[in-house]
Each structure stands twice: as C-alpha cells, then as structure tokens.
C-alpha cells in the first residue's frame, strides 16, 4: 500500500467524505482513514437525524435513492401550540448517504482504509507530516485533515481546538412504526419534519419527529449540557430517560414500536472555534461544529466545511505553495463567510432559545404566526433587526438573565 499522499483525511463522515470527493475531482491523491469496519459502516457513527433541504442535495449532487422521504413542511411545536412553514425537505437514510459518499469518492480515485483508528499526529520540525493509526501504522501527506468529530484526536494534540464540556450536546434517536402521524390536536406530520421546544422532554434542547413514510418516523431529542439544561433538568435523568418519558406521555406514540437496529446516538461540542487550522493541518465538520439556531442543518454545515477545506488545500497545492498556516488561512475565511456567517450571533440566539421557559415557547408560536417567513429566516441567520422582532417588553427579565450569564462567561457581544 502507498503510504504517501497529497492529503490524508481522518474520518469518513459527511465532512471527510465530501472533502475527499472534491479533492480527487481536482486530481489529488487522497486517503481517508475510518475507524469502523467496512462491513458495518456506518454503525457507531450513524448518528444523524438526517434531515436536510433541497439546497444541500443540489449543491453536492446527492442522489434521490438515499432519501427515505421527501417532506413538504417544517413544523415547530411548543408544549401547547405549533407553527407550520412550507419548506421542502428530505429525510435521508443516513447510512446509505454516507456509503454513497464513500463509493463516489472511490470512483473518483480516493483510497479508503477502514478498521483504521487514527491515534496521533506524526510530527517533524514542529509540523504535522502524517498520522499514526492502529498503534504503529503510519501514513503521510502534504496536508492532514481531522474530520473525526468530537473525538478530534489530531486537533486536540495539535492544540487547534479546545472542546469545552460545558457546551457538550448529546442526542438519541430511534426509528419507529405505528406512530399516529396525523393525531387530532397536533400538527399534521405527514410529509413533515417537526422540531419541538419543550423542557419536559428536552431540557435546554429540542426533540423531533421526522416522517419517513406511512406510519414510520425518526424520533429523538438532543440537549446541550450547560446552565440552560441544568435550570430545567430533573435530577438523575439521562437522555434515555427523557426519551422514554416522551414516548410514554405523547399519545402519538401509544401504538408505536421501535424498529430493530435503528438506534442512533451522537454528541458534539457547540462553541465558537478559536481557530481551525495550523501548518499543514485543517479541522473540519463536527470537529469544529456549527448549527443553525432553528433548523440545525448539521449535515449541510459538515458538507460545506469539507468543501471549503478542499478549496483551501487546492489554493496552496495547485500553485506549489507550502501549506503553512498563513497559506491555509483562506479556510478560516471561507468557513466564517460561507459555512457559518454571523456565527457568534447565531450561537447566542441558540443559547437564548433554550433558556426561555415553556410558556415563552407557546408565545413564540404566536409570534411566528404574525411574522413573515423572511423575518424568521433572517433571525436564523443572526440578523439583529430580525431578532429584535421576536422579543417584547415582557422578555426583559429573560434577556437580563441571559446577559448576566454571558457577561459571566465573557461571551456577550
């Protein structure tokens, strides 16, 4: 086996897979190392709700045959109300989607090594020149990319990212059949992706039902383990306990049964990245995660991250430049411009959203009915004027408490 490449990528998820696709399309020799075995891939890493929008499908050439269900609407629920927005979407079969990225990358010339657990960078003269995997195996590249998600074995050892426990998001999801998709008193979830804001179910986070056809759906929840979660959490309750509580109390699940082998777990560290690159190295995808406050769009963000990383690498190597931190700086620029614009404002909005009490979520649904969709989209992108339209005088105590928390953390704008 060749052990020298133009680019070495650790991790075969959406970010790593898309980065490999883009790089081989530009003619580079690329190897992707993946911890899981090929026969079981993806198993442990199959963690996404896999909800996405047509823009992602079109931008990255994703085929229809990895889609479980096309949807017409996005639904936001509060404990007693809901809001429906017409917005086409797609719920992916995430395993098929990830396998497609591998197959397409291979067809383009990328080499994939499965059962290859990356453990450490190989350093020469203070710079990374390759990675060590499976104990003593080695592979070398002009540029090394960490796309391993929260484990981040390379980014951590290179001191590129500092993943803080206080903003650690954890989630769990099952796939079910026998769900009452159009239950009286609730929103019609046929051909819809639903996100619910309710601290009884997901304290400091959200839960979801994504319709996947007939009476089947993906059902799960996620919350960020920080002060917002602690404010509403029940002592001793785990993420599994909250999901069980929802399944036991929501009448839509009265006759639902879990589909065998369709359980997914995941985690991420939701925070502002201080930096994402150094000499000969980039961190992409959920190693430096970002989310939209309302819609999430984690898949799209990972794919975009992989794409702009490929652009940054190409901008160096095609001109014969050394991939120094200075020459790879374009990656950070493109990330903040194209992947996560207004990231600080959007992160603050996400934190504020999960701090609000359940009563405010009900009011939020009423607010959405009086506002136009453009305002909601602008607020999701961190537009200050659009955000201001979501608040009124009664929110003063909530905003004051949030400001106090942020000042304590040194994070307020």
Automatic annotation (TrEMBL):
SUPFAM superfamilies membership: FAD/NAD(P)-binding domain
Residues that span the membrane, as ranges: none
Residue ranges of every copy of the FAD-binding domain listed in the record: 5-306
Molecular function per GO: FAD binding
Signal peptide: none
Gene3D superfamilies, sorted: FAD/NAD(P)-binding domain
Database matches in PANTHER family: DIGERANYLGERANYLGLYCEROPHOSPHOLIPID REDUCTASE, GERANYLGERANYL DIPHOSPHATE REDUCTASE
Protein name: NAD(P)/FAD-dependent oxidoreductase
């Amino acid at each position: 086996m060749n052990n020298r490449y133009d680019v070495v990528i650790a991790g075969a998820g959406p970010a790593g897979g898309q980065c490999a696709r883009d790089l081989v399309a530009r003619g580079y020799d690329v190897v992707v190392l993946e911890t899981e075995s090929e026969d079981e891939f993806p198993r442990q890493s199959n963690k996404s709700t896999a909800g996405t929008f047509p823009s992602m499908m079109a931008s990255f050439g994703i085929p229809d045959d990895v889609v479980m269900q096309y949807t017409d609407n996005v639904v936001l629920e509060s404990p007693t109300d809901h809001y429906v927005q017409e917005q086409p979407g797609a719920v992916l079969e995430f395993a098929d989607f990830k396998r497609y990225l591998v197959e397409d990358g291979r067809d383009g010339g990328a080499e994939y090594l499965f059962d290859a657990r990356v453990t450490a960078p190989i350093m020469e003269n203070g710079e990374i020149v390759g990675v060590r995997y499976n104990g003593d195996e080695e592979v070398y590249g002009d540029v090394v990319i960490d796309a391993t998600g929260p484990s981040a074995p390379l980014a951590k050892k290179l001191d590129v990212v500092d993943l803080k426990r206080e903003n650690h998001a954890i989630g769990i999801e099952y796939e079910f059949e026998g769900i009452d998709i159009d239950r009286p008193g609730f929103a019609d979830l046929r051909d819809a992706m639903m996100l619910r804001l309710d601290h009884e179910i997901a304290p400091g986070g959200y839960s979801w039902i994504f319709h996947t056809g007939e009476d089947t759906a993906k059902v799960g929840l996620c919350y960020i383990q920080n002060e917002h979660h602690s404010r509403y959490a029940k002592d001793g309750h785990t993420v599994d306990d909250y999901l069980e509580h929802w399944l036991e109390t929501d009448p839509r699940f009265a006759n639902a049964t879990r589909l065998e082998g369709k359980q997914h777990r995941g985690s991420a560290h939701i925070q502002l990245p201080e930096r994402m690159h150094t000499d000969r190295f980039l961190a992409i995808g959920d190693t430096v995660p970002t989310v939209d406050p309302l819609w999430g769009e984690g898949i799209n963000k990972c794919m975009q991250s992989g794409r702009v990383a490929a652009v940054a690498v190409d901008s160096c190597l095609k001109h014969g430049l050394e991939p120094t931190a200075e020459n790879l700086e374009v990656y950070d620029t493109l990330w903040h411009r194209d992947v996560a614009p207004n990231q600080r404002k959007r992160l603050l909005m996400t934190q504020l959203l999960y701090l609000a009490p359940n009563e405010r979520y009900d009011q939020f649904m009423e607010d959405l009915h009086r506002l136009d969709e453009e305002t909601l989209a602008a607020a999701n992108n961190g537009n200050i004027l659009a955000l201001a339209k979501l608040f009124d005088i009664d929110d003063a105590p909530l905003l004051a408490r949030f400001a106090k928390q942020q000042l304590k953390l040194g994070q307020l704008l």
